[in-house]
Amino acid sequence: MTYQGVKNFSHAQADKIGVLITNLGTPDEPTTPALRRYLKEFLSDPRVVEVPRPIWWFILNGVILNIRPKRSAAAYREVWTDEGSPLLTHTQAQTQALRAAIQKEYGDRVVVEFAMRYGNPSIASVLEKLQAAGVRQLIVLPLYPQYSGATSASTFDAISADFRKRRWLPDLHFISHYPDFGPYIHAVAEKIRAFQSEKGIPDKLIFSYHGIPKRYLLQGDPYHCECYKTSRLIAEYLGLTKDQYLTTFQSRFGREEWLKPYTDETLKALPSQGVKSIQVVCPGFSADCLETIEEIGQENREYFMESGGEKYDYIPALNADSDHISMMHALIEPQLSHWLSQPERNASATQAYANALGADQ
Ligand SMILES: C=CC1=C(C)c2cc3[nH]c(cc4nc(cc5[nH]c(cc1n2)c(C)c5CCC(=O)O)C(CCC(=O)O)=C4C)c(C)c3C=C
Ligand SMILES: [Fe+2]
Ligand SMILES: [Fe+2]
């Protein structure tokens, strides 16, 4: 085994700090073959599907990858724009905005990029780019506010799998979650407030989070508690009483029980309990994507209205809102200032040391 070194290394290159934003990832196009590629990578991740590998191999390759890609491609076509997948375009806009804010403050000593856990641009390709740019200190910020093994830890797996192949590793600061971070709660709560000042106050506000299998919670995954904590903090910020909001879980996959209450079942039941107007917000999604635009914006709207609901609104994700960018800036700030307060480590220090040793440079 040979470890991969830095190509064309120059001692004249100044060391940089990298900020890597990541999200889940999305197919390259809304077509059946692209969905098969994407779902194969995604659903082969043992962090996502915790089923013994040989059994899962047969279910995935024999059943799921023959049925789901076509169905999912049709769903993706509903949300696809001229620029591409919403998840990708929102992540690009977030990266550009954060890069502009960071470089305005610190200049080009700090490099900001994004990568996707599944699909493109891959984590490995962006880590390669960052290393070539001279990044020796790296902050990784997965845009998952609530920690789950299926998302946050899976991102860490991808980073460390890449590092295992490398000769020269950077200092690493990994932000594993931020469910109760003040600027995050502020950003979501103010988004809700601004929305309500235009559309009015509903009978109930629904906080809908992506689900995970209940088994993961029972095995010690903190995701469920972190979702409830985020809802509670946003509700407290807005001064809501307990009967004015609900936390639910959406996007079930497979047959086993997932975290409850389920969003779809809840929305079908609410009108008969006298709840005729609702607003749904998805604080676990940092960017609008298939699961918010199609599932919450369209599918669940139909469930609610067909069950006797009268008014249904989806409150968009934070996307590239300036409050969201300030939140990201505030999340990385302590580690950035720590590294920036240290003397700049660059080429010349290494050069002087090498010269003293008489090494050939
Ligand atoms: C926000 C956190 C997310 C968690 C937790 C999560 C867990 C999880 N997801 C699946 C299966 C699928 N998810 C799919 C789409 C999808 N999931 C998230 C986020 C979380 N998933 C996002 C942001 C998206 C949308 C991506 C986009 O391109 O817009 C899909 C693909 C769509 C489909 O075919 O229906 C699947 C499949 C599991 C099994 C899981 C936890 C174990
Ligand atoms: Fe998902
Ligand atoms: Fe819990």
From TrEMBL:
Lineage: superkingdom: Bacteria
Enzyme kind, highest EC tier: lyase
Keywords on record: Cytoplasm, Heme biosynthesis, Iron, Lyase, Metal-binding, Porphyrin biosynthesis
GO biological process, one term: heme biosynthetic process
Keyword Nucleus: no
Database matches in HAMAP family: Ferrochelatase
Name of the protein: Ferrochelatase
Source organism per UniProt: Nitrincola nitratireducens
